[in-house]
Amino acid sequence: MQTGMYTETERCVRAVQSKDARFDGWFYTAVLTTRIYCRPSCPVVPPKPENMTFYPSAAACQQAGFRACKRCRPDTSPGSPEWNQRADLVARAMRLIADGVVDREGVPGLAARLGYSTRQIERQLLAELGAGPLALARAQRAQTARILIETTALPMADIAFAAGFSAIRTFNDTVREVFALAPSELRTRAARRTAPDTPGFLSLRLPFRAPLNPDNLFGHLAATAVPGVEEWRDGAYRRTLRLPYGHGVVALTPRPDHIACRLTLSDLRDLTVAISRCRRMLDLDADPVAIDDQLRTDPLLAPLVDKAPGRRVPRTVDEEEFAIRAVLGQQVSTAAARTHAARLVTAHGEPVDDPEGGLTHLFPTPAALAALDPASLAMPRTRRTTFTTLVGRLADGSLQLGVEQDWSETRAGLLALPGFGPWTVDVIAMRGLGDPDAFLPTDLGIRRAAQELGLPSTPAALTARAAAWRPWRAYAVQYLWATDSHPINFLPV
Length: 493
Prior knowledge:
By secondary structure, this protein is an alpha+beta fold. It has helices at residues 9-17, 58-63, 82-85, 89-98, 101-114, 118-129, 133-151, 156-162, 168-179, 183-193, 214-223, 271-281, 288-295, 302-307, 319-328, 334-348, 366-370, 381-396, 407-415, 422-433, 444-453, 459-466, 473-481; strands spanning 28-31, 36-38, 52-55, 67-68, 202-206, 230-233, 236-242, 247-254, 259-265, 350-351, 361-362. It has a five-stranded antiparallel sheet. A four-stranded mixed sheet has the order 3-1-2-4. The longest helix has 19 residues, at 133-151.
């Protein structure tokens, strides 16, 4: 599947006629006779091909005057895999829009972060997605509003504010235009389907493309969890979240057809960002069929893929936090890295209240860690220098690790820091920056797995062999790691 697939009419028609859920989020079907837009897997009888037209985004459908289908709820599709597997301007802009930047900083703020003019951003988004940044952000606000309408008892005025609308009238008009129902009607319909949630909590379902193997995904997050910031409790991975307007606590539970997400937020304006970051951490917008098909072309990898398809790359909700933790984990065991991080959390993290579990702090900011006494760090002098240089550069802004960063430029910036070799940089690229092609040929676990499978085990030879796995080498890493009996590869009990 390539960018622009929605322009390939015959393939889109076939996907709709077969109700193929793999294509949900890749494109949207707009029905000319009903003025409704749907996901490809919509359960209703498909319209005649001549009555279908296809759009690359929900925002483009809305711009063209189509309303969301009430049966298949296309606004709840997984996101397009494109935005997390590409490093070009459009993909970086889409990651920032998902992170709420347009609502907080406007289109000029989006453009400033990307280093382009607003006109260039608008032109490129319009060309590829059929909608500019304001329309894309509006579609996202509408979805946030729907979640709050359906899962809370909040007054509509509070929901409008939390979803990012500037006025109640705009909120009402947008909801009615997008969903063909007034906000009160949406709430009434939802009340017939679901039981009300506990006050103060938001419960929602995070969709994904099947298959999804939760073992290494949740196993990795649980095995490396920093006490006070993360925990595995009652079948859920829980962690604290530092967000633009406040903080939150999230519990994420794997289910057969979705991830159950339970959130508490100190400021409801952070809902969109919290959902986006959790989806990104769990790699929920990936296209596992395309990834696995590519990896199966290597006969030595194919058995691993066939045994447990749908592995995702466990990522992060905070790129700066992950980079700091990667340095803490250099040349030490998982347990030692957790101990180092827990000490920093206790001493420098911001306390939070968690009425449901054992979470106590937000992970410390780079500014807080830059102010500590280096002599207090229980680590070798060279790693202490690596740590203090990193947090200093993050704190003063001379190194940035946000979702909008160019992967190649960021790699070069990291490699220029003392103590940053290829392994550390590639781990950060894979799990922090989200590069789907990041590779770890020097990792001992990877080399051991390669040797057992009959793959080349020296870094140079393995890298040459892995050229055929591109652009999905980060996923190959997950399959190779999974051959080991380390706790990161197993869903906790």
